[in-house]
Ion-translocating oxidoreductase complex subunit G
Amino acid sequence: MPLTDSKKTAPWLLPVILAGMTLLTSGLLMIGNELTAPQIAAQQQAKKLASLQRLIPAEWHDNDLLTDAVAINEPDLLGHRQAKLMYIGTIAGKVTARAIPVVARNGYSGDIELLVGVRADGQITAVEIISHKETPGLGDLIERRKSDWLEQFPETSLDDPLPQQWAVKKDQGAFDQITAATITPRAVVAAIKRVLLYHQHIATEPIPTGAQNNE
């Protein structure tokens, strides 16, 4: 028996239902984002502070590191000009250390973002890997939680080892590479050297003003 018109689905009904479901899903996602955004922001802030505390330990500053951040063009020999935040540690207004951002753009799988802690005398305090896309089990061994590879940098400077020795041992340098993953550590060592050269250039300059960021 053929269906009567009253039993047929109105042609406009399905699009209306789909539109309603889309709006409902979007609304739920927005509410979820609103509820979780403060928690995510707090976690990111805590992670950033933990990194900064390794780069500029408490005994090296009496200021608020997160507040005293200055926008700079991170050191880059490839000509990129990307503004990033440099964090400055001071005691009684005198610079004691800086956490300087740098990007290694010749990693195996893409950019590697770092923060390098450098004391006023040019010695490295610590190095933190902020983000990367390196191969799990190989290039990602640059991460502190996966190996102690980063521990070879504290207390080094452009005086020890000398600038020409700032390379991995495979390139006749002073630093260990990672077995089967030379490209990644090579990129990181080169980036850290750029930071030290940059620090050497700005070490005698006054603290920049007018560019502080309270992020």
Observations:
- The chain has one domain: 53-213.
